[in-house]
Recover the amino acids of this structure.
């Protein structure tokens, strides 16, 4: 069965934590609803030693799962872009580098999966997506959470079975706990030129839960009006709160992110006329949800989902299937949706006051 699945050869750009998670997941022997085979073809790092350590730590222990391919390790990124054996480049650098990394890869004719947040602002995002369209290559933002089977089942229950009746309101939060002011100035969590602040880093997940639970046809119907506020410490946003107002349906989203307070395990709640759905786990990597009808005794019905590793493989599978079928973008995480989400975050920052040096709004 596995040999009938599409196979994608990946070039990995950057060797930080997020890339290690992505690679480790792709080298698992299998996962639920597997739709593709994945090969780590090459690794690009800022130095040969860092690239070699990444290979030793995350690829070598799982080399048997890499279809017998021993990936090349490069001391730069351009070699990955120009490697003829690479089908698609995964970009795992900090936000502020995404724009140029994408441009370089696209100009080399490579398909691209780029980590979230896609760029620092909507103008940069549109520049990159336009280039991909002009060059005819595949491009997708790596918003992995959207590809979880849990999301598909949750939306089916909300909008096909309508298990909680008319959807009215969603609360969602993503909080971490660290002291921004004590971090070194060059930390990506403190340096504004690197996109510091919680909104692009983790708030994008709260935002995503808002649109996924409040929009029956995500991105294709009414877009929300936004009311936002932020707290800045030394110019760095450490707390964002915003309301989505869908005037046509009357729905609201109350959405937050912070680096001051850790998030609770039950991080989101969707409220309807007949009941409530509570979502559990990490905001970026949900594990289960509970459906409880109004007046129902007990804890409600728990829906749990199998997830070996962290769950990055589902977005990678989507890329592989899209490429095998000749598509240049993905239906779930379309380029228009990426542009829209970046625009929403621009508006939250415009109202709240958080700014990056490259902003023009």
């Amino acid at each position: 069965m596995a040999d009938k699945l599409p196979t994608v050869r990946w070039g990995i750009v950057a060797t930080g934590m997020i890339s290690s998670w992505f690679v480790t997941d792709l080298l698992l022997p299998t996962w639920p609803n597997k739709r593709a085979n994945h090969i780590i073809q090459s690794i690009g790092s800022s130095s040969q030693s860092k690239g070699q350590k990444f290979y030793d730590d995350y690829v070598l222990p799982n080399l048997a799962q890499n279809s017998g391919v021993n990936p090349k390790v490069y001391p730069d990124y351009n070699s990955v872009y120009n490697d003829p054996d690479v089908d698609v480049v995964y970009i795992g650098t900090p936000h502020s580098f995404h724009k140029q990394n994408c441009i370089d890869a696209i100009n080399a004719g490579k398909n691209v999966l780029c980590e979230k947040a896609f760029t620092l602002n909507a103008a940069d995002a549109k520049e990159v997506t336009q280039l991909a369209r002009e060059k005819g290559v595949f491009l997708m933002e790596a918003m992995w959470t959207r590809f979880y089977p849990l999301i598909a089942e949750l939306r089916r229950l909300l909008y096909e079975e309508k298990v909680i009746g008319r959807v009215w309101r969603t609360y969602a939060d993503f909080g971490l706990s660290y002291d921004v002011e004590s971090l070194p100035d060059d930390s990506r969590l403190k340096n504004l030129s690197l996109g510091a602040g919680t909104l692009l880093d983790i708030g994008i997940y709260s935002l995503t839960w808002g649109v996924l639970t409040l929009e029956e046809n995500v991105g294709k119907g009414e877009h929300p009006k936004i009311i936002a506020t932020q707290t800045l410490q030394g110019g760095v946003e450490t707390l964002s709160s915003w309301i989505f107002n869908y005037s046509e349906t009357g729905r609201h989203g109350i959405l937050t992110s912070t680096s001051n307070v850790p998030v609770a395990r039950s991080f989101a709640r969707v409220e309807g006329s007949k009941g409530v759905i509570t979502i559990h786990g990490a905001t970026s990597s949900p594990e289960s949800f509970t459906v409880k009808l109004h007046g129902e005794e007990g804890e409600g019905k728990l829906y749990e989902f199998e997830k070996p590793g962290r769950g990055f493989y589902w977005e990678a599978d989507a890329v592989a299937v899209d490429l095998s079928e000749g598509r240049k973008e993905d239906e779930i995480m379309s380029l228009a949706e990426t542009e829209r989400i970046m625009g929403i975050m621009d508006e939250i920052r415009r109202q709240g006051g958080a700014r990056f040096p490259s902003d023009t709004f």
About this structure: The chain has a mean pLDDT of 97. The domain at 149-306+341-352 is CATH 3.30.360.10 (Dihydrodipicolinate Reductase; domain 2). DSSP finds nine helices and 14 strands in the chain. Residues 335-352 form the longest helix (18 residues).
